[in-house]
Amino acid sequence: MMGPAQTVRARVFEAPGEALAARELRLAEIRDDLVRVRLRASGVCGSDLHVADGDWTARGPLVLGHEGAGTVEEVGPGVKDVRVGDGVVLSWFAPCRRCRNCAGGRAWLCQNTKALENTLPDGTTSFEAPDGEPVPAFLGLGTFAEATVVPESAAVKIPDGVPFPVAALIGCSVTTGVGAVVNTARVRTGDSAVVIGCGGVGQAVLLGLGLAGADPIVAVDLSEERLALARELGATHALGGDDPDLEDHIRSITGEGADHAFEAIGRAATMGMLTSLVCRGGQAVIVGMPAEGVTVPLDPFDLADGGKRVLGCNYGSSVPSVDFPKLARLYASGRLPLDRLVGRTATLDEVDGALDDLRRTVGLRTIIRHGNGS
Ligand SMILES: NC(=O)c1ccc[n+]([C@@H]2O[C@H](COP(=O)([O-])OP(=O)(O)OC[C@H]3O[C@@H](n4cnc5c(N)ncnc54)[C@H](O)[C@@H]3O)[C@@H](O)[C@H]2O)c1
Ligand SMILES: [Zn+2]
Ligand SMILES: [Zn+2]
Description:
This protein is α/β, with parallel strands linked by helices. Strand 17, helix 11 and strand 18 form a beta-alpha-beta unit. The model has no long low-confidence stretch (mean pLDDT 95). The chain has two domains: 198 residues, Alpha-Beta Complex (Quinone Oxidoreductase, Chain A, domain 1); 138 residues, Rossmann fold (3-Layer(aba) Sandwich), CATH 3.40.50.720. The protein binds nicotinamide-adenine-dinucleotide (NAD) and zinc ion (2 copies). One zinc ion binds next to loops. Keywords: Metal-binding, Oxidoreductase, Zinc. Belongs to the zinc-containing alcohol dehydrogenase family. This is Alcohol dehydrogenase catalytic domain-containing protein.
């Protein structure tokens, strides 16, 4: 049963290739360990686009958006870690905190999360249509809405003073990109690195490489604007993704190949190229996510002979309750200039245009602003 109707405006995926529907939905009633969060900002991530464009199987209706931050508005009786009024970053991987992986400190591999099924932990949905039809939320969040309902483990308090657009980006691209460097690859000072794809996630990889003291840092993208930003964020070299001699150029900069190569686009061709860009003993880190079913060829002789590793990176191998506040503190102390990743502002009504920005690589990360939060 729903409590007193809390109705919000939301943008809903119905079918691939269609504009997101503008719907008025009711929020789930607050109970147990659930938290209602009034959204203040939401990024628009490549993963939202994968759903909107049909790269990934998803059934509509589904409230899209998974890179968000806001203010806690109501908490259930079992909630211990956040209070009404707290500023929180939402985690798209609400961990169960009890399974073998959670207990072992690897929350990003939680075996019990329901977030990947787009529901709350008990299998019910965060939203419902006026006729009672359950409406799931993408990755259990649905940040393209004025407010949402999530389990406590998906709402992480962050220090005051972090602007909501920056906080929103910590919810996905920043945690993924910086985490890929410091948690997944464990880059050491002076290691060389290549980043292929310098969008929201790739620019965060570059910031992580700066933090880790990597050198040289080679940025690769098709967009001049992205490459210019990459240089400002610490890339020592910038190369065009359409450069026919890309491998040779990377080798001439890094010597025998890079210690680490990150793919942050999600394209088969660039993923397939990664292991040839790293030196003997080097690491190829897959951060971008391709369409379902895509495979890439590997050269096992080169991998074995060169002692190379291929690492998959989910959510920057991060634990939200530990890593979100850490990233927020690094921002506050000036070590991570996350505000440089914030692009133009759009309203909830303009989400389709924001998805188009992503398709056409226009501008930086567009931020959907909800209400008047700063
Ligand atoms: N592993 C994870 O946990 C995780 C988390 C978030 C996002 N992702 C994935 O990361 C990928 C990137 O997401 P994003 O939000 O940064 O997208 P984005 O669109 O902002 O960035 C993609 C970038 O790749 C560049 N690009 C495209 N084709 C290229 C080419 N041939 N050579 C070089 N550069 C090229 C584009 O110009 C753009 O700058 C997506 O696949 C997304 O699903 C993965
Ligand atoms: Zn994302
Ligand atoms: Zn778990």
